[in-house]
Amino acid sequence: MAKIACIEDLRVLAKRRVPKMFYEYADSGSWTESTYRNNASDFARIRLRQKVAVNMENRSLASTMIGQDVSMPVALAPTGLTGMQSADGEIKAAKAAEKFGVPFTLSTMSICSIEDVAENTTVPFWFQLYVMRDKDYLGKLIDRAKAAGCSALVLTLDLQIIGQRHADFKNGLTAPPKPTLRNIANMATKVRWGLGMLGTKRHSFGNIVGHVAGAEKMGSLAEWTNEQFDPALSWEDVQWIKERWGGKLIIKGILDADDAKLAVKSGADAIIVSNHGGRQLDGALSAIEILPEIVKAVGEKVEIHMDGGIMSGQDVLKAIALGAKGTYIGRAFLYGLGAMGEQGVTCALEIIQKELDLTMAFCGHRQIDEVTSDILIPAEKVFNPYLG
């Protein structure tokens, strides 16, 4: 096998090893995918200021996210169907994150359940919550996260209804996959993936099936979520969830300064500036583009994190320079998982860590918590170098 040098290498390998419907679930956006593409391209437009003849010894990426020590300001984002990228994928990713010293966030729409992950890890993980119409089930889901010792609840607010995702529609995305001729033919070429799936009993939504009526008969993912997710979600629901949870609350899906202020008012311990990986409102701003405005609006009142488009350690550094206290990788670790299981997730984290460390050094810093916007070159000078 060729050596893995960057996240793109993991993506290429994952595409070869993971069935098309699950690979494209991770590697696609909504509608025209303009926001999905801009998440990455807007990072590329940000330029860095190189410094020389500075002491680069004894560098440290250690930081904290909501008071939790982290080896670098990067967490694994909540991603649905992670256990369909690789058998028992959530357990593998959580183990890799634990060994690396970064947070793992389990999605409501995971294949492995809250209890599965808790039984296979030794440090608390975070749990991401979608708001369902069934408030009795919702309350019990929160209680299960408490019982498992989860140290933070990540409440996603930008998926009251599901975005228009053409790839998922065309692929007939389900978990487990429906045995159509097209799906069978494609999966037959993914021997490594198939052998892994034969070795596990976890093939459906572990947090849902067996816990909510009708889930055993769910059709496509889009159909089920449109039936079950609550389009009437409001800030009053957020308050109820905060009180029921009683612990650290992170609100995910903020792309507007006014919404950020409401999140602060709701008592959030942190907010995640995010457009759901470009999978919801196509045409929305990228998270990195809106990040400075949200930092300016509420950065002194709440801890600000961001996700969307992070594919390198340089992207992490740029987000930190623009005011984020923490970042999340989704697709980057999923590519690693699909490519090489737990080892691939570790590989993705190692790549991000090395790139972050080297770039920080080139920009003249030794401590990640001391990085500011001074390492960035103003956009007007990038495109008009004769100014100033």
Notable traits:
388 residues; alpha/beta; TIM Barrel; 8-stranded parallel beta sheet; two-stranded antiparallel ribbon; disordered C terminus
Description:
This protein has 388 residues and is α/β, with parallel strands linked by helices. The chain has a single domain (7-378), classed as TIM Barrel (Alpha-Beta Barrel), CATH 3.20.20. It contains 16 helices and twelve strands. The protein is globular. Mean pLDDT is 93; it is low at 383-388.
SSE arrangement:
Elements: H1 7-17, H2 20-26, H3 34-44, E1 47-48, E2 63-65, E3 68-70, E4 74-76, H4 89-100, E5 105-106, H5 114-119, E6 126-129, H6 135-147, E7 152-156, H7 166-171, H8 181-187, H9 191-198, H10 221-228, H11 235-245, E8 249-254, H12 257-265, E9 270-273, H13 287-298, E10 303-307, H14 313-321, E11 326-329, H15 331-362, E12 376-377, H16 379-383
Parallel strand pairs: 4-11, 5-6, 6-7, 7-8, 8-9, 9-10, 10-11
Antiparallel strand pairs: 1-12, 2-3
Helix pairs in contact: 1-15, 4-15, 12-13, 14-15
In short:
The protein is 43% helix and 11% strand.
Residue fraction in strands = 5-15%
Q: Residue ranges: pLDDT <50 for 5 or more in a row?
A: 383-388
CATH architecture: Alpha-Beta Barrel
How confident overall, as mean pLDDT?
A: 93
Tally the helices.
Answer: 16
What CATH calls the topology is TIM Barrel
The CATH homologous superfamily is named Aldolase class I
Main beta-sheet annotation? 8 strands, parallel
Order of helices and strands: HHHEEEEHEHEHEHHHHHEHEHEHEHEH
